[in-house]
Amino acid sequence: MLLKKTTDILASEITDKAIYEERRKFMTSSAGLAAVASLLPLRDSIAGYGGKPLSSTKNTQFDIADTLTSYDKITNYNNFYEFGTDKYSPAKNAQALTTDPWSVEISGEVEKPGMLHMEDILKQHAIEERIYRLRCVERWSMVIPWLGFPLAKLIKQARPTSKAKYVQFETLYRPGEMNGQKRRVLDWPYIEGLRIDEAMNPLTILAVGLYGEVLPKQNGAPLRLVVPWKYGFKSIKSIVKIHFTDKEPVSSWTKSAPNEYGFYSNVNPEVDHPRWSQRKERRIGDFLKRDTLLFNGYAEQVAHLYTGMDLKKYF
Amino acid sequence: MLRLIKPIVFILCLLPLVMLFVNFYHDELGANPFEVLTRSSGEWTLRFLLITLAMTPLRQLTGSAWPLRLRRMLGLFSFFYVCVHLITYVVLDHFFDWDEILLDIIKRPYITFGMLAFILLTPLAMTSTKKMMKRLGRRWKSLHKLIYVIAILGVLHFFLLVKADLKEPVIYAIILLVLFAVRIKPTFLLKSGLNPQ
Ligand code: HEM
After folding, report:
1. pLDDT tens for residues A53-79?
2. Contacts of residue B31 in chain A, CB cutoff 8 Å?
3. CB-CB under 8 Å, B31 with A73
4. How far apart are CA B18 and CA A112, in angstroms?
5. CATH code, domain carrying A166
6. Which end of chain B, N or C, is more open, meaning fewer C-beta atoms within 10 Å of its C-beta?
7. With an 8 Å Cβ cutoff, is A72 touching chain B?
8. Which stretches of chain A drop beneath a pLDDT of 50?
9. Which of B23, B32, B106 should we substitute to test contact with A (largest number of A Cβ atoms within 10 Å)?
């Protein structure tokens, strides 16, 4: 397994620093209580949130100035239809999912197809922490400290052939544990896809954790995609299959409503969802909505992928 | 009896809003409390519309007069909740951006239907007093038949805003259909001469 390097700092240690300092201030200021206070469960706030810690190195290349959304909100407000169609059910229902053992099938236009075991994936790739915005098509957003590694690394290992123009991802189908799959709200299993150059973009990562710990089940454990310049539903969760193909994949949401959810689904304030404007969004925790940014603020990194394309047509 | 029932029902009708405020205050509405405010007030608007529509059949079922005596209050609560609903939309969704709101009403069918329902519900609330009832006479009755249209618009509004899971709007649609069906039946039977009476 991964060994924790002494230089590594868990994200949970950073964000809870404010709480930590506050408690410390309280303790020192009330000297008489100091002895008692030292018995308070101070460790809780600096030891994380109860998940298995994952060591990582910080990659600040794509850092943004925005404040992080709290762990509590990130893990209790999830669109994960496999565990119910409202955003509060997954936190509860996803706990039934068995995420160990887990393997991912690599197939299609690659020289090295096969099954990858989760332990090996974790061993082979150095885990980075990256702070990304997440913008849901429903007009809310968060800022999440993900732990993961570039998808490009995994793709290079698989050695795609020249026919690999697209990458198709598939979520686990296991109605016994994923109670939302008992109803055909979407055409299970959940399918998503990227163009190969989108998949190879340095921003695209496979996430295995958040806030310094392994990924909570409701957030797509044990392995999920994170494509921060696209609407959240593109970032498929609990992946069991990565397929390389020369045909544009039809994602589950596109299948369900082709006029509302296109293949690209890039965050774009100028392109409305047919039923609502995408100009603004509510950052979870804020009272007022804020302006939505083109490519969710990542235009510098990804705009070149779409030069010459009519983004209204290829929505 | 009615004297006792009325205030109790009044308080019960206020309870959803009170609970909403209490939970909001205690930060118990989850990660996106503003969304909960809009959705919950919308659902209660629809529920009160259906409850109001259920009073006539309930009267027939029980033979007692009190359901009809409660009808006005229940209808007014529906209007009360749609006002809360509309306020959350204007303040929380658009923060008084009237241009954007106007565009929304024109461009988004679910908003168009919701707004239409609100516009139609307003005169019903305004004419709900005894005085207006007297003044309008027979016309009052035909005016207040609009509640059927409003309820249909409300359910359509719900259908059109859902992303994929139609379960809830379907449930409301079925309840509405049942409420319509129990009304249609007696006159239908009467007309076709099947009614033994
Ligand atoms: C009689 C009139 C109306 C009824 C019965 C009604 C009912 C509802 C219902 C049942 C919901 C869904 C709640 C849920 O998702 O659980 C809803 C949501 C909503 N309604 Fe209404 N509504 C009415 C009028 C309006 C008006 C006038 C507006 C604004 C102009 C409006 C805007 C909205 C919005 C923005 C949502 C939330 C959509 C979302 O969360 O995506 N409604 N309404």
Report:
1. 999 999 999 989 899 999 999 999 999
2. 72-73, 76-77, 87, 284-285
3. yes
4. 61
5. 3.90.420.10
6. C
7. yes
8. 1-46
9. B32
Chain B residues whose CB is inside 8 A of the A188 CB are none
Q: Which domain holds residue A61?
A: 46-306
Among all residues of chain B, which has the CA nearest to that of A138? Answer: B163
In a domain, A68, yes or no: yes
Nearest-neighbour CA in chain A from B95: distance (Å): 7
Tell me the residues of chain B between 143 and 162 that have a Cβ less than 8 Å away from chain A: 160-161
Q: Is residue A14 part of a domain?
A: no
pLDDT tens readout for residues B37-72: 999 999 999 999 999 999 999 998 999 888 999 999
DSSP characters over B46-95: HHHHHHHHTHHHHHHHH--SHHHHHHHHHHHHHHHHHHHHHHHIIIIITT
By residue count, chain A amounts to 315
SS (H, E, C) chain A: CCCCCCCCCCHHHHHCHHHHHHHHHHHHHCHHHHHHHCCCCHHHHHHCCCCCECCCEECCCCCCCCCCCCHHHHCCCCCCHHHCCCCCHHHHHHHHCCCCCCEEEEEECECCCEEEEHHHHHHHCCCEEEEEEEECCCCEEEEEEEEEEEHHHHHHHHCECCCCCEEEEEECCCCCCCHHHHCCCCCCCCEEEEEHHHHHCCCCEEEEEECCEECCHHHCCCCEEECCCECHHHCCCCEEEEEEECCCCCCHHHHHCCCCCCCCCECCCCCCECCECCCEEEECCCCCCEECCHHHHCHHHHHHHHCCCCCCCCC
pLDDT value of residue B183: 86
Chain A: nearest CA to B148, how far in angstroms?
Answer: 25
- pLDDT at residue number B94: 93
Query: Which chain A residues have a beta carbon less than 8 Å from that of B32?
Result: 77, 87, 140, 282, 284
pLDDT in tens, B134-153: 999 999 999 999 999 999 99
Question: What was the ipTM of the complex prediction?
Answer: 0.85
List all residues of chain B from 48 to 107 with a beta carbon under 8 Å from chain A: 92-93, 95, 100, 103-104, 107
